[in-house]
Write a structure and sequence with these properties.
Strand content: 5-15%
CATH superfamily of the largest domain: ABC transporter type 1, transmembrane domain
Helix content: 55-70%
Largest sheet: 6 strands, mixed
Distance between the termini: 38 Å
CATH topology of the largest domain: ABC transporter transmembrane region fold
C-alpha cells in the first residue's frame, strides 16, 4: 500500500488550519490571555520594586522601614502571579485536550466517509499512526505553544513599555538587536519543519510494518520470514533514527544561537548602563532594573527556542492529520428514501476501472427480477466481487447506471441502500465484544430469542454453547476458528433477514457437512428474495435461477446450470475442471 503523500504548506499553513479549532473555545482562550497578562504585569513590576529597594541603600544608611515595605509588596505580587500562572495552565490544558479530542473525532468520522479507494492506497498502520501518534504529538506541542505564546507575547510588550519609561537609549538598543534572533530562528525553523515531516512520515511507515508483521505472524513463521521481517524493520528503524537525528539536531541549533544573540544584547545593556551612571542619567538601582528587564525581554525568545523541537514536530504531525481531513469525501449521498424493496436490480451500460489506464468492466448490462437467485462465477480477477462492490456503492461507477426497483442507486442514501442487502463475505470480520454483540451487529435491538434462533439457523449454536460463557463470551483474535467466525457472520445476516442477499464465497471456510446444512438455511432465507451468489465451488450454484459467467469484466455466458453445461462453453469447462466426468453432481 502506498503511504507516500504530498502535504501542502509548512508550519504557517498547519497553524492556520489549527486556529479554527482553538477559536471555537474563545472564552477559555480569552481567560488564559487575561491570566497571562495579569501574571506578566505583576512579575515585571517586581524588578521596579527591587530597584527602588536597592536605591534605599545610600551613603547615609539603609531605610529599613521602606525596604521591608517593598519586600512585602514583592512577596504579595509573586504570590498572586503564581496563582494566575497555575490557573492559566489549567485553561491551556483544557483548551489543548478538547481541541485534540475534536480533531480525533473529526478524523475518525471523516475516515468513514472517504472512498474505499483511499483506504486501498494507505495502510491501516499509517492511518492509525495519524489518528493516535500524530495527534498525541500535536497535543504536546500545542500545550507547550499555548503556555509559551500568551505569556511570551505579554512579557515582550509589557517589558518594552517598562523599559522605555526607564531609559530610551537602552530600550532602542534592545529593540534594534532583537530582529537578529528572529532571522536566525526563522531560517532554522523552516528547515527543521521539513525534517520533522519526514520523521513523521517514516514513523507512519514503521507503524504500518509492525501492524502488518504482527497481524500476519502465523504466515511469517510458517514461511520462515522472521529474519527478512527483522531486516525490513531494521531498515525502516534506521531511516526513522536518521530522520529523527537530523530533525532534532537542526531544531536544537535554535536555542544556543538565540541565547548567544541575547547574551550580546544583555552585555550591550550592561555596558551602556554603566556609561550612563556617572552622568546621572541612570542610578545603580535603575541599571539593575534595566538588566532584569533585558533578561525578561529575551526570556520568551529563549523559552520558545528551547521548545522549537516540539513545536516543529507538532506542526509536521498536524500537516499529516489535516491532509487526512482534507481528503475529498465519497460522492455526495442521495436523498430519496427507498420504498419497500421489491428486488429488481438493473445495470445499464456500466463501466468501471480501479485505474484509468486499466479498464475492468465495460458496457455491462444486467436485469435481475424479484426473487431471482443469481450466481456469478468465473476465474479469479474477472470482476465478480467488483460487481458486488458496485451494487453496494462501495465504489462508484465511472459511467452507466445501476438501479434498484427503478431508482438509480446514486440517488439513494447509502445507508438505506446497504440496509436493503444482507452481505456475507469470504473475509470474516468480528468486532471486539461478546458473541451476542457480534450477532446483533446489524440489529442491536434484537431479542435473546431472535439471536438464538439466528445462531441455530446458521448452525453455530452448538459451538456457542461450548464456549466458556456462551453468548457472553468475549471474543479475541484466536477465540474461534476461521469456519466458526464465518458461521457467526452468517448468523448476523440471518438475524437481519434483509430483503436482498449477497453471498461472496460465504461458505468457503466451512467443512462440507456443515456447508450442506448452512446451504439449506440459505435456501430458506433466499426464498422470495433477490440474491447474488459469488462462488468458486459450482456445486453451490446449480439451483440458481440465473448463472452469469464472467471473464475480464464482461458476461461471456448466462443461463441455467443444465443449459450452460449442454452449451459446452466456459461454464462447462469450469464445471468439469471441478468434477470428474463420471461423477457429475458429486464433488471429488
Amino acid at each position: 500500500m502506498n503511504t507516500q503523500e504530498q502535504y501542502s504548506g509548512g508550519t504557517g499553513s498547519s497553524l492556520k488550519k489549527l486556529l479554527p479549532f482553538v477559536g471555537r473555545r474563545w472564552p477559555v482562550l480569552a481567560l488564559s490571555v487575561v491570566l497571562a497578562a495579569v501574571s506578566v504585569v505583576l512579575q515585571l513590576y517586581v524588578p521596579i520594586l527591587f530597584g527602588d529597594a536597592i536605591d534605599q541603600i545610600t551613603e547615609e544608611g539603609v531605610h529599613f522601614a521602606l525596604l521591608w515595605d517593598y519586600l512585602r509588596k514583592i512577596l504579595l505580587l509573586v504570590g498572586i502571579s503564581s496563582v494566575c500562572v497555575w490557573l492559566m495552565n489549567l485553561c491551556n490544558n483544557h483548551l489543548t485536550f478538547h481541541v485534540v479530542e475534536e480533531i480525533r473525532s473529526k478524523a475518525i468520522a471523516h475516515l468513514q466517509k472517504l472512498p474505499l479507494s483511499y483506504l486501498d492506497r494507505h495502510s491501516p498502520g499509517d492511518l492509525v499512526s495519524r489518528m493516535i501518534t500524530d495527534t498525541d504529538v500535536l497535543s504536546d506541542g500545542l500545550l507547550l505553544g499555548l503556555t509559551q505564546l500568551f505569556a511570551g507575547v505579554m512579557t515582550v510588550v509589557v517589558t518594552l513599555y517598562f523599559m522605555f519609561t526607564k531609559n530610551l537609549w537602552i530600550s532602542l538598543l534592545v529593540v534594534l538587536l532583537t530582529p537578529v534572533s528572529f532571522v536566525v530562528a526563522r531560517l532554522i525553523a523552516s528547515r527543521s519543519f521539513q525534517l520533522f515531516r519526514k520523521q513523521s512520515q517514516v514513523r507512519g511507515e514503521q507503524t504500518a510494518l509492525i501492524d502488518e508483521m504482527i497481524g500476519g505472524q502465523k504466515v511469517v513463521r510458517a514461511f520462515g520470514y522472521e529474519q527478512r521481517a527483522s531486516q525490513r524493520f531494521a531498515q525502516v528503524n534506521e531511516a526513522l533514527m536518521d530522520a529523527s537525528q537530523r530533525a532534532i539536531f537542526c531544531s536544537s541549533l535554535t536555542n544556543p544561537v538565540t541565547r548567544f544573540v541575547n547574551g550580546v544584547i544583555y552585555a550591550g545593556v550592561a555596558l551602556v548602563g554603566v556609561m550612563l551612571i556617572p552622568g546621572g542619567s541612570l542610578t545603580v538601582g535603575g541599571l539593575s532594573v534595566m538588566l532584569a528587564y533585558a533578561n525578561q525581554y529575551m526570556k520568551p525568545f529563549n523559552d520558545i527556542s528551547s521548545v522549537v523541537t516540539e513545536l516543529q514536530n507538532a506542526m509536521a504531525c498536524a500537516s499529516r492529520v489535516f491532509a487526512l481531513l482534507e481528503e475529498p469525501e465519497e460522492r455526495r449521498d442521495g436523498t430519496a428514501e427507498m420504498a419497500p424493496v421489491q428486488g429488481v436490480v438493473e445495470m445499464e451500460n456500466v463501466c468501471f476501472s480501479y485505474q484509468p489506464s486499466r479498464p475492468l468492466i465495460e458496457g455491462f448490462h444486467l436485469r435481475v427480477e424479484p426473487g431471482m437467485r443469481v450466481a456469478i462465477v468465473g476465474p479469479t480477477g474477472c470482476g465478480k466481487t467488483t460487481l458486488i462492490n458496485l451494487i453496494m456503492r462501495f465504489y462508484e461507477v465511472n459511467s452507466g447506471v445501476i438501479r434498484v426497483d427503478g431508482a438509480p442507486i446514486a440517488s439513494l442514501p447509502r445507508h438505506s441502500l446497504r440496509r436493503s442487502f444482507g452481505m456475507v463475505l469470504q473475509d470474516t470480520w468480528l468486532k471486539s465484544g461478546t458473541v451476542r454483540d457480534n450477532i446483533r451487529f446489524g440489529r442491536p435491538e434484537a431479542s435473546e430469542e431472535e439471536v438464538i434462533e439466528a445462531a441455530k439457523a446458521a448452525h453455530c449454536w452448538d459451538f456457542i454453547q461450548r464456549l466458556p460463557q456462551g453468548l457472553d463470551t468475549v471474543l479475541t483474535e484466536d477465540s474461534l476458528s476461521q469456519g466458526q467466525k464465518q458461521l457467526l457472520c452468517i448468523a448476523r445476516v440471518m438475524l437481519c433477514r434483509p430483503p436482498m442477499l449477497i453471498l461472496d464465497e460465504a461458505t468457503s471456510s466451512i467443512d462440507t457437512r456443515t456447508e450442506v446444512l448452512v446451504q439449506q438455511a440459505f435456501d430458506a432465507l433466499m426464498e422470495g428474495r433477490t440474491s447474488f451468489v459469488v462462488a468458486h465451488r459450482l456445486s453451490t450454484v446449480r439451483d440458481a435461477s440465473l448463472i452469469l459467467v464472467m471473464k475480464d469484466g464482461a458476461i461471456v455466458e448466462q443461463g441455467r446450470h443444465q443449459e450452460l453445461l449442454e452449451a459446452g462453453g466456459a461454464y462447462s469447462k469450469l464445471y468439469h475442471s471441478q468434477f470428474q466426468p463420471s461423477q457429475e453432481g458429486e464433488a471429488v
